[in-house]
Amino acid sequence: MTFPLYIDPGTGSALFSILIGAAATIYFLFRALVLKFKFGFPGSRASFSGKSYAFKYVIYNEGKQYWDLFKPVVEEFEINKVELRYLTSAPDDPVFETEWTYIKPEFIGEGNKAFAYLNFLSAEIVLMTTPGLDVYQLKRSKTVKHYSHVNHGPTDVTTYRLFGLDYFDSVLLTGDYQGADIRFLEKLRGLPEKKLVTVGCSYLDVYSQKIKQIPPENEHVFTVLVSPSWGPSALLSRYGEKLLDPLASSSWRVIIRPHPQSKKSERPMLERLQTKYKDCGNFTWDFERENIYSLSKADIMISDFSGIIFDYMFLRDKPVLYANHDFDIRPYDADDIDHELWQFKILKQAGIELRENDFSGITKIIESAKDSESLANARKEARETAWQYQGEAGKRTFNFMTGITE
């Protein structure tokens, strides 16, 4: 007896997605192999002759949230009439909104499809924010001469997952202080020294100009910005209603800006909180790509160990309440460092610590959290330490990329 083959719609959809993904991966692998035939296979002398690379300068952008980080660099290539290959995993990357002469943008797919392309790339230098080179799926191509990592922000570089920066040839820093921990890990792990260059923070350069152009509100209401990181130790995941209930009963405007990763990894938690507070008139949820609009409205921020704390401190120069004393450093490079992270050390000086037993009285804490000279001085010191060469990051990164290949 034979039985008809039946595949339920959910399984069929999953199988279809797998087939589409496999087909796309094969397509990008085929394209990469064509480049190999054209420009030389790994290990051949020709592949490192200086004229045999498919591309000279390459930027890889893993997501459109990093466009403001790369934008000043891309513009420098265009201004200086130097061709740049801009590879992106965002089909709606803002790079496609401009007509360029010297910038050659290309969408190379997401996830494994992008890695299949990158793992066979031929280029003199590749600049990326993506950590974990040669650790996970992203491998060093034998026909890439130099891999450079540009930091996501002005915080500690050891907050990447283990071995995040180990196999890059260079790292571009926002402040000199970040280099000491990289050198420490190199000695600890027996790694060759990378080239470390402080260029500043390009996305803060962009934000500092954008935020000046935002018109002030006609009738400003005192605003509290809740902007945490994501994960089990983060503010919304760990405390949720315990923190938000007292704010819901206040007379202030409260903007809640979850970390972008929360929408992907913590959707049930967010949906639960949005449903609970859907009738709360003073709550606003912000899921915009750029954070500067919320930053520009906020009079005070509540966060945890998120890097947005420093965006707010450096761009707005206003008080921050933080709760990060339970941050688990074990999965990160920071676990191998023999001292306290700079960002946690500076928060003790420039921020106001918030503990769980403070939540019930948080309105009084916020009311009394007036700025002080010591907090302001600590913020100034942090900004000068972690955001060097303000306004120059794009030009300095361009100079590094074009200089390293000479």
Give structural notes.
With 406 residues, the protein is of the alpha/beta class. It has two domains: 193 residues, Rossmann fold (3-Layer(aba) Sandwich), CATH 3.40.50; 172 residues, Rossmann fold, CATH 3.40.50. Helices cover 39% and strands 14% of the residues. The protein has 15 helices and 13 strands. The strands form two sheets. It has a seven-stranded parallel β-sheet with strand order 3-2-1-4-5-6-7, covered by helices on one side. A six-stranded parallel β-sheet has the order 10-9-8-11-12-13. Strand 6, helix 4 and strand 7 form a beta-alpha-beta unit. Helix 2 crosses helix 5. The longest helix has 31 residues. It is globular. The termini are far apart. The N terminus is likely disordered.
User: What's the order of the H and E elements?
Assistant: HEHEEHEEEHEHEHHEHHEHEHEHEHHH
Secondary structure class reads alpha/beta
Overall helicity: 25-40%
Query: What radius of gyration results from the CA coordinates?
Result: 23 Å
Shape: globular
How many strands, which pairing sense, and closed or not: the largest β-sheet?
A: 7 strands, parallel
Regions with little confidence, pLDDT below 50 for 5+ residues? 1-17, 38-51
Question: Which band does the percent of strand residues land in?
Answer: 5-15%
